[in-house]
Structures are given as C-alpha cells and as structure tokens.
Amino acid sequence: MDAVLSGLNTFLDPSTLFFLAAGVIAGLVVGVIPGLGGTAAVAVLLPFIFVLDAPQAMALIIGAVAVVHHSDAIASILLGIPGSSSAAVLLLDGHVMAKQGKGAKALSLAFMSSMAGGLIGAIGLTLAIPIARPLVLMFGSPEIFMLTVLGISLTALLSKGNLVKGLVAGAFGVLLGQVGAAPASPDYRFTFGNLALSNGLDLVAVALSIFGIAEIIHLVAKKTAVAEVTSIGTGWLEGVRDFFPNFVHVLRGSLVGIWAGVLPGVGATAGTWMAYGQAQATAKGKSRKKFGKGDPRGVIAPEGAANSVEAGDLIPTLLFGIPGGAPAALLLGALLIFGIEPGPRIITDHLDLIYVIIWSFGIASVVGSLLCFVIAKPLSMLSFVRFPLLAAGLIPILFMAGFQGSLQIQMVPLMLILGVVGWFMKEFDYPRAPFLIGFVLSIPMERYYYLTDNLYSFSEWATRPGVLVMAAILLIPIVMAIVRMIRKRLGYVKEQTSTESDLGEDHAPRTWAIVVAGIFFIIFAGGFVIAQQYAEAARLMPNIITVLGAILSLAAVFNEARRLKKGPARTDEARASWKKVLVVTLASTLWLLGFVVLIYVFGMAIACIVYVPLFLWFVAKAKWWVIPIYTVALVALLLIAQQFAGISLPDGYIYLGI
C-alpha cells in the first residue's frame, strides 16, 4: 500500500501530469496516421526522456502507448484503411457503420471501449503484481537468462507468417545488439574502428530506422492521399447509450486482450481478432449473422482488446523483463537508460514506479477517450493529406530524434541504411518486432549467461525447476510447428500454395526473396568470421548467434526456393508492377540520401531550409504559398526544441571545420 500511495503522489506531481498530457497528445496524433502506430509514437518520444526524471519519462511514454489505439480507429472506421494492423478488424463492422451514416456512433463505441479496455488492463496489471511478486523474487540469473531467451524466441515463433523468418529476424536483432563493448571482456565488437560505435547502436535510432524510416520509404513512394474525405455522420450519444448494454463484450474482449499481451509474440493484432471471434462465437441465435454488417459488438469487443493488450504486455515487460512487442521493447529500453532493470530489481527497488506507470495508463485511457470525442474530426483530416506532405516534416523529425541518443553524426547515414533494411524486412515478410526485441535483450541475455556460467555448472542451472518450465514452454511451439510440417508432408493437411492474385501484382518475386535470405546468410557468416579475432569471452555469444542465424538463413533460402518451384509463374503485369515498386522506392530512398548528405555537410537547420522546399515542390506537389510557411514553421519548431527542450541538432562538417 505504501508503494501505491507513493506512486500516486509522484503521479500527481504537476510535471508528471504535464508530460502525461504531452504523451497523450502525441499518441493521438501519431495513431491517426495510417502506417505509423504505437512503435513510432514511442520511438519519436524517446529522445526527450534524456532530460527527464524516470517518472516523467514513463508518464510521457505510457501516455502515448495508452491512447494510440484510440485514434487509430478513426482511419479504420471513416476511411476503410487500418490506422494500424490491430485496427484492421474494425473494417468488418466499424467501416460498414460509417457507410451507413453511423460513423459517429461507431467512433463513439470505439472510444468508450478503448477507455474501458485501458482501465481493465490497468486493473489487471495491478492485480498481477502481488501474484507474480513472490515468483519473480525467487528468480536467479539462470531463470532471468532463460526468460530473455524465451522472450526473443517466443516472439519470433509466434509471429504471424513464416516461423523461420521470425527466428532469422530475432537472431539479426541480437547480432546488431552485440555491436560495441563486450560486457565480459575489454573487446569492442563489430565497430570496424569507428569510435561512434564503441557504445553500441542506439536503441532510438534503430527503432526509428527499422520502423519509421522504412514506413516513410514505403508510403512516400505511393505519392497519394491516404483516402478520400468521408462524412462522420451522427450518433455520438447513441453510441454512448449502446455501449453500456454491451459492456459484457468489452469485459470479455479486454480479458482476451490482457492474455494476448501477456503472451510474447501474440500482440494487439492477434488479440483484436481473437476478441472479435469470441464476440461472434458467443452471440446468440440469429444475431450472429449481424456481424460484418455493422454490428456494434464488432467494434466494442476488438477495441476493448486493443488497449488492454498494451497493459497486458506491461506485465511480462516490467515483472520479468520480457517485452511481448515493439512498443514494450522500447519501454524496456527506456527503463534501462535510467539504470532500472525490470524483474526482481524493479519490484524490490522501484515498485512505486510501477504504480506510476499503472496510474498513467489508466488516466491516459480516460483522458484520451474524452479528447477523441472533441477532436476526432480535425484529427481525421490528417488522414486525408497526401503522405508526402506529412513526410516533409516527419523526415527531419525522425533523423533529429535518432541523433539524440548517441549525438554522433555518423548515426544519421546509419539510420538511412537501417531504414532500407527495415523496408526489405517489411517487403519480404521478416517480422520486425522479434528483431527489435532481440536487439533490446541482446546484452542482458549475454550478461546473465556469463553470470550464470560463473556461478553454476551447466547441470546445476539447466536442471533448476524454473529453467525446465521455461524450456518446456519454448519447446511447445517448436513441436507444434514440426507436427504441422509432418502432417503436411504426409498429406493430412493441404498445403496452401500462393497464387499471383494472393500475392498481389506488386509483391516481391520469389527470386528476390531467395537473394534476401542469402544476404542474411552472408551477414551471419561474416559476423562469425569477424568474431574469431575477439577474446573467448567476447566471441562466445556472437559465435552462437551467427551460427544459429546462418543455419536459419539457409533454411529460409531452401523454403523460398521450394515455394518458387511449386508456385505459379509470374505474369508480365506482375513483373512490371514489381519494377515500378523498385523504381519509386529507389526514388524515395535517394531523396532521403540527399537529406542525409545535406545534414552531413551543412547541419540539420540549413539542411531543412534547403531540403524541405525542394521536397514539397517536387515530391509533395505542394502549392507555392504552402512551401515557405511549412519550411519556416518546421525550422522554427526544431530551433525552439533545441533552445528550450534540451534537444541537440547535428552540426555539419562545414560548421565543425572538418
């Protein structure tokens, strides 16, 4: 109880409330823009935490996480375009209601359900602490090491799509996490003599690159508006009235969401579809047939789950140090920045901070929902703007944010490289959440392994009950995958072969997929060769990861080659469409490269003055009078942030006199 009251007292501090409000506003704005989502919202805010205290930083981040699913419903319902992957389920009933002139009612139901889901999720997190606390305090280094392995592996194994690709992505993240000083020896690994890499790759820069810059490359290439304007319609109060008789669906959906959040790798997308499925399955009689035709229950259940998933994800993240998704991985990284290790340490030393997070999540859910009722219409207008017009401002902000962690100008071109890597991962179906979780947990996994190895013999730590339980949990999805594979080979399950229509005309051809898998193999093989020059303690973990990653990459090559052999021949239209995708993507990348060069030479401020007008004129096709206003406003915003928010802008080599 003392920790609860202490957390509440810290939460009620005016500075904490201010940063909570800032996080809520940022989360609502980012959430409404299709393609960005919670990961981008947290990543953009991370650079600001370096000048904050831990409670203020947590309030800022949780404020964004708690509300991003409120506003991503706007694009799904009004536009028929998912604001995020988890909001895609709202197309079934929410968008249908908007077409029927009941857009306001659907939004009202979504906002109320998100608020309830957030509150139920906060309650679930509160109840989990006394239940899990005795278990967590029993954990030693062997159990914590196995938890890190479990977190990376389960997220990859349970990711949507190809199991092998998920594991390759997780191994790649762990390998990049090995860059910099080794925790058990004086070696600097994979730095190639570059001092800027001696402290490792910065989490903020990596996350913004793999997710944010990759999405910008993808969306700028389209050069189209996100959607045409759709009327919100009427029915705000009707939605509020319909919410209460259907509260049981919110409760069930929220419980499903908490469970989906607790399980690593399941996440909000699977959680919302599971909630929708249970709502449909528990519907009585002929009312089940109303789903997909504008049934309010088809909005209420998944929206309750969407927000409670994030609260559920905080349970393994805070109590065990195992993030289940990308936003939680960034939150874990933020805690580590303040020297706070999730798991036993946070429960014994920083329990009040957990309650600050809980209070922040619950209050942000309420405030975010109320704000959405007021600003839903103006927020929705962001989705009607052509993305290149938004990108002209997002590009400088992302590079500025990624610069804050290391304050090394070399990180700017590295962000572009990682952004291209993120685009390839997205295009060729390598899930990026396992990559980010692997990156975050790489050093903790290595550190706890060495600690375990020094304190126990292998037979001692490998036979501990907690380790055996986690090993069994890890083996379950692997055994299930092997059983499914055997059943397919024996003909008990019909193997689905992709057709040209399934893939889409602009989907990457299998030959390219083989090449990408081969590149991953080369990266892992090269990493293994380079690691041999390090001391034994420094090369042990890289050796394990590179060997494992190389084997998995070869398996991915084999899988893609087998699909190429079994799949249909690509049509001329598909080849032409893919070439067009490559051309426009290359053009987007070159524009970003031009901005990086300008930053390198002249610094951020002058680069924006030169780059933004050119981008607005040639790419965004903005009106002439918009260009000077847009440019002045953006440069002023960056300079104000530099002056009053402690933000650093990269100086070019001309300024540095180099």
Automatic annotation (TrEMBL):
PANTHER family associated with the record? TRICARBOXYLIC TRANSPORT PROTEIN
Which controlled-vocabulary keywords does the entry list?
Answer: Membrane, Transmembrane, Transmembrane helix
Query: Taxonomically, which superkingdom?
Result: Bacteria
Higher taxonomy: Bacteria, Bacillati, Actinomycetota, Actinomycetes, Micrococcales
Which InterPro entries does the entry mention? Answer: DUF112_TM (IPR002823), DUF1468 (IPR009936)
Q: Where are the transmembrane segments?
A: 17-37, 44-67, 73-94, 106-129, 135-159, 166-183, 318-341, 353-376, 383-401, 407-425, 432-450, 462-483, 512-534, 540-561, 581-612, 624-641
List the protein's name: TctA family transporter
User: What range(s) does the DUF112 domain occupy?
Assistant: 17-436
Any Pfam family from its record, for instance, is TctB
* All residue ranges annotated as the DUF1468 domain in the record: 516-641
